[in-house]
Structure formats: structure tokens, C-alpha cells
Amino acid sequence: MTAIKHALQRDIFTPSDERLLSIVNVCKAGKKKKNCFLCATVTTERPVQVKVVKVKKSDKGDFYKRQLAWELRDLTEVDAKDANKVRDNTHSLTHTHTHTHTQSLTHLRSFSTPPSLPLCPAGESGV
User: Fold this and answer.
1) Which residues contact 115 (CB under 8 A, 6 or more apart)?
2) Is 77 a domain residue?
3) Tens of pLDDT, residues 3-23
4) Within 13 Å, how many C-alpha atoms sit on residue 37's CB side?
5) Is residue 126 part of a domain?
6) Alpha-carbon span 34 to 14, nearest angstrom
7) Is residue 83 part of a domain?
8) The model's pTM
9) Which secondary structure element, helix H or strand E, spans residue 5, and what is its range?
10) pLDDT digits over 28-43, tens only?
């Protein structure tokens, strides 16, 4: 996982002046494992912006590409269990992938989460 983290930092995040803090390998439930990651990043310039970025390994080659990005301040919940669940009046990162590693959600909570926008692991209610 360290080699992947270094490759992502070098190829994806350094060119856009971001620093990779943590990565979580995610995969679709019931599907064969595809290399897809949720990454916690911060910008290197002030004001600092904290983001959650979805990165996918290309099918044609050995490189990664950025798919989606969400600013942490805009998220109230990360629910990796049920993408079909509807939530009203919230900004949610609802993802059809399940986490194969949950340590980084705790890590995400530990850096720069505004108190008014709790970041909850799937299954917990933050609202």
C-alpha cells in the first residue's frame, strides 16, 4: 500500500499542489476487486482545503486518474453502505463502494472536521 500511496502522491496530487494524508481501498460489493481508492488530501497553500478524492486505476495501463473530489467542509456524512438511501437537507458522499479498511475514516475525523459537520462512519447517524 505504501508504493501505491507514493505513486498517487507523485502522479496525482503533487502536480495539483496537494498532499496525500491517507488512502482507503474501496470496491463494489459482489464485484471483483477493482483498484479504486478514497484519498484524504490537503492543499499545500493557504487557506488549506481538505478534500476526499476518488481515484481509480486505469483499465489501459498502470496509471491512476482522479474521478471525483469533495471538499470535507461540504460533507456531513460518508455512507459507504447504501447509495440508494435518500437523505434530505444534507451534503453526503454516498458511494456504491464498501470500505475494505475503516481506519482512515477515524483518521479523516481527526483532522480539520468542523464541529458543525460531523463525519460519521456508515451506519451511525450524524444528524
Assistant:
1) none
2) yes
3) 989 999 999 999 999 999 999
4) 23
5) no
6) 24
7) yes
8) 0.62
9) helix 2-8
10) 777 666 778 999 999 9
92-95 long-range contacts, CB within 8 A, separation 24+:
93/52, 95/26, 95/38, 95/54
**Domain-embedded: residue 101:** yes
d(CA 34, CA 45): 33
What is the spatial distance between Cα 68 and Cα 88, in angstroms, rounded to a whole number?
A: 22
- Domain extent for 19: 2-110
Nearest one of 124, 107, 116 to 52, comparing CA atoms:
107
Strands 18-28 and 97-99, sheet pairing:
antiparallel
Residue 101, all three cell numbers: 479498511
Domain count of the fold of the chain: 1
Asked if residue 79 lies in contact with residue 105, where contact means CB atoms within 8 angstroms, the answer is no
